[in-house]
Amino acid sequence: MKRLVILGGGESGVGTALLGKAKGYEVFVSDKGKIAEKYKDVLINNEIDWEEEKHTEALILNADVVMKSPGIPEKVEMVQKLFQKGIPVISEIEFASAFTNANIIGITGSNGKTTTATWTDYVLKNGGLNVSLAGNIGDSFAKEVLKDEAEHYVLELSSFQLDGIESFRPHIAVLTNITPDHLDRYDYKYENYIASKFSITKNQTEEDYFIYDADNPTIAEWIEKFEIKAKKLPLTFQQKVKEGAYADEQNIIVKIEDNEFIMAREDLALKGEHNTKNAMAASTVAQLLKIRKQTIRESMGSFQGVEHRLEKVLKINNVQYINDSKATNINATYYALESVSAETIWIVGGVDKGNKYEELLPLVNEKVKAIICLGVDNARIKEVFSNCVENLVETQSMKEAVQLAYHLGNPGDTVLLSPACASFDLFQNYEDRGRQFKDNVRNL
């Protein structure tokens, strides 16, 4: 019996443990921190061995294979010891993909991947396909593979999940864009992060498809540097393409072989240039999977968007409150500020991953009237923006931030939570941050 050791007892770790046990592995889960009660219950009920708040070397270094949860960096001591012993360290995506023959649509990118994955899942379900949405969103891929009910998987994939793949091969790969993010995990080398994103296509063959944003400067520069065997389908605003998707002032046009899908941009459910790209990506996948054009059109027009991504919460005294907690980097916040037209009170801050806040200066000067810092260390934010606005205040709780925003707001203004940072200093994760924002807005 092969021994599968899992580092990290969260969603991907416990999903992998269940799948591993079902496939005949001897399974052991080890977490350096505490394992949440709901996951502990699953491990106990399924008689899977586990430990928390420590890594016992004797129980880990005897593994045949190790699944490392995406949150654990490769540089930690235990992972380095595994590498030295030559024990394979893979991701949950790699492990789970070996146990399914379903069609896989893998979606990655610095921004837009959640919206694109959710929108793609929506249009394919509306088209009558048997689809499961998993990966970096919702349930783990491993748990979904264990159910063995789907014929198609739409997987949202982070760079950390792609780092641990060896043979994982999506039939359709989507790369929404690449901008600097998570550089603390890539030795502050942008090219390492870029390579991680492009690895989504490394095992694809001529029978597969690679959909990518051809207007993204990083992708445009690097697309020739990686060997891409899959059929390339660009998404672009800049020129007509024979195959792929492009947009003019009025329409988006998707062309696959001799088949053309056209839809008016004004009929798309989500506004903003970045969402037009997300719609083009989802429509291209739908076209490849032969969804009826009428169904694609209806799905592109009726999609509700994603929680914590430019989510309109409430209007109070004619002030619009928007939850964009999922904006954990500069580029995502750039989109958010670009999409609001009103005078804006901006709630920003958290764990900074080496942000270049200067890129936001033109938009902040144009649209932002007050800044509320919500983080333990706000020095960089103050340094860059203190001359832009009259009001720049620091807070340590969401309740305080929302109440301050309420007092600063005038009719017609927007209050925008778009932190441009990770959330781990004051919150469990970006969802917790977003829900706290919404709860406090509703309590005003």
Automatic annotation (TrEMBL):
It catalyses: UDP-N-acetyl-alpha-D-muramoyl-L-alanine + D-glutamate + ATP = UDP-N-acetyl-alpha-D-muramoyl-L-alanyl-D-glutamate + ADP + phosphate + H(+). Residues 107-286 form the Mur ligase central domain. The keyword Endoplasmic reticulum does not apply. GO terms for molecular function: ligase activity. Pathway: Cell wall biogenesis; peptidoglycan biosynthesis. It is found in: Cytoplasm. Its EC number is 6.3.2.9. It holds the Pfam family Mur_ligase_M. Residues 308-421 form the Mur ligase C-terminal domain. Coiled coil: none annotated. Keywords: ATP-binding, Cell cycle, Cell division, Cell shape, Cell wall biogenesis/degradation, Cytoplasm, Ligase, Nucleotide-binding, Peptidoglycan synthesis. ATP binds at G109, S110, N111, G112, K113, T114, T115. Belongs to the MurCDEF family. Cell wall formation. Catalyzes the addition of glutamate to the nucleotide precursor UDP-N-acetylmuramoyl-L-alanine (UMA). This is UDP-N-acetylmuramoylalanine--D-glutamate ligase. The lineage of its organism: Bacteria, Pseudomonadati, Bacteroidota, Flavobacteriia, Flavobacteriales. The gene is murD.
